[in-house]
Amino acid sequence: MKNLSLNGIYVDALTGLENFFKFIESDMEEMCGDNGSVVVVDVINFSKINEDFGREMGDICLLELALVLSQELVAYEKSQIFRTGGDEFIIIKRDATK
């Protein structure tokens, strides 16, 4: 999943997804097009996983979530996913009509 060709400042170290810095520097009009959508994924009470099972298990859960989200987006052309915070992801889907 990690894309080492991207500049390190724009890549989340854990998941390999583009990060918050890449998101805020992206051209939303170009990414969304005429019918685009923005989806914010925030895992409620994620800190409970870290507290109950440890950070290592929390990291595994975040990696799995990033993998599932990425695999689902493969079907959509020009969709992007960013990890913008600890348990927060933003998904940009270029054409929400498909």
List the helices and strands and how they pair.
Elements: E1 18-19, H1 20-25, H2 28-32, E2 37-42, H3 46-53, H4 55-73, E3 80-85, E4 88-93
Parallel strand pairs: 1-3
Antiparallel strand pairs: 2-4, 3-4
Helix pairs in contact: 3-4
Give structural notes.
The longest helix has 19 residues, at 55-73. Strands 1-3-4-2 form a four-stranded mixed sheet. A hairpin with a 2-residue loop joins strand 3 (80-85) and strand 4 (88-93). It has one domain: Alpha-Beta Plaits (2-Layer Sandwich). It has four helices and four strands; from the N terminus they run E-H-H-E-H-H-E-E. Helix 3 crosses helix 4. With 98 residues, it is of the alpha+beta class. The mean pLDDT is 87.
For the largest sheet, list the strands in their spatial order.
Answer: 1-3-4-2
CATH top level is Alpha Beta
**If you consult CATH, what is the topology?**
Alpha-Beta Plaits
Taken in chain order, the helices and strands follow as EHHEHHEE
Full CATH superfamily name: Reverse transcriptase/Diguanylate cyclase domain
How much helicity do the residues have? 25-40%
The backbone outline, from C-alpha atoms, is globular
Percentage of residues in DSSP E strands? 15-25%
Give the termini distance in whole angstroms: 25 Å
Largest sheet: 4 strands, mixed
Task: Provide a quick synopsis of the model.
The protein is an alpha+beta fold and 98 residues long. The chain has helices at residues 20-25, 28-32, 46-53, 55-73, and strands at residues 18-19, 37-42, 80-85, 88-93. A four-stranded mixed β-sheet has the order 1-3-4-2.
